[in-house]
Write a structure and sequence with these properties.
Strand 7 and strand 8 form a beta hairpin. The strands form 2 sheets. The protein has a 12-stranded mixed β-sheet with strand order 9-10-11-12-13-1-2-3-6-7-8-14. It has a 4-stranded mixed β-sheet with strand order 4-16-15-5, covered by helices on one side. Helices cover 8% and strands 49% of the residues. It is mainly beta. It has one domain: outer membrane lipoprotein receptor (LolB), chain A (Clam).
Length: 279
């Protein structure tokens, strides 16, 4: 992926007035490589995804654009079925994909481990983090009043994207993290739920080596991009209940249409999911 370097003062500091509580105009976009290790038996498998962080004056959005599009396309397949042609609907749990009969009808499969389905919105104005996720054909919205993150700024330095960075450490919900922020980029933001340092966070990892997030590009947006929390039907819950649901996500979702006989199946085969929050 091409790297973008921010070399001018950030336009988000004078972005347009917020029209409503859940809308902002992003003028800075960051790209991060997100590495995570999953357990497969006694082995670790490393997955890499590319996520985007759009930053406005009071809100940000952290998301996997390609994964969201794949989920949207998969949902559209279901939505496009003509209800007049549906004869039956069967829902199956914990299906072994090797035993699934692909020869009958059309089968579509959406691998939930292929990308990050969660979207994270930081609403700095109201002091909340909003999390959206689609799991097992359900849409969930969690609210996390995260408060202040208790960073410890250290003396170690490093360089990322040609920016001098300073190290900070954090104990957060069961894991210990090390982060590097760029004082030359005066943005109180970072990937995932991280924020609260005097500069944009360009890299963060946990000390066990399970998660590693590193910025690979920065971009000033000539045309502001609207950050808006999508409307729709969600199961709304607090952070702990939300995590209970999404941490049990299936490895795959499958749908088969055999002459109007619809089979929807969840497949729980593959690496076990590792949560960033342990408490």
């Amino acid at each position: 992926m091409k790297n973008f370097f921010v070399i001018t003062i950030f336009a988000f500091l004078v972005s347009p007035t917020i029209a409503q509580d859940e809308t902002d105009q992003a003028t800075v976009r960051c790209y991060y490589h997100f590495f995570q290790k999953e357990k497969a038996g006694d082995k670790n498998i490393t997955f890499r995804d590319t996520l985007t962080l759009d930053i406005g004056s009071q809100m940000s959005r952290y998301y996997d654009e390609r994964k969201i599009q794949r989920d949207t396309d998969f949902s559209a397949i279901v939505a496009d079925y003509n209800p007049n042609t549906i004869k039956s609907i069967t829902v199956l749990q914990n299906v072994n994909p090797d035993l699934f009969d692909y020869s009958l009808g059309d089968t579509y499969r959406n691998n939930t481990f292929d990308g990050v389905s969660e979207q994270i919105f930081k609403d700095r104005k109201n002091g909340n983090i909003i999390m959206l996720n689609t799991v097992s054909f359900g849409r969930y919205k969690g609210t996390d009043p995260v408060g202040t993150l208790n960073w410890n700024i250290e003396s170690d330095t490093a360089v990322f994207l040609d920016y001098p960075c300073q190290k900070a450490s954090l104990q957060f919900r069961g894991r210990n993290y090390e982060a590097w922020f760029a004082p030359q980029i005066p943005i109180n933001e970072g990937p995932w739920k991280f924020f609260g340092l005097p500069g944009l966070i360009l890299k963060v990892k946990d000390t066990e080596g399970m998660f590693d997030i590193e910025c690979i590009g920065l971009e000033n947006l000539d045309t502001p991009y609207t950050i808006e929390i999508p409307k729709g039907e969600y199961v709304e819950c607090n952070r702990k209940d939300y995590n209970k649901v999404v941490n049990k996500k299936d490895n795959s979702q499958m749908i088969n249409n055999n002459a109007g006989n619809i089979t929807i199946a969840s497949v729980s085969v593959g690496p076990s999911f590792q949560a960033m929050e342990l408490e």
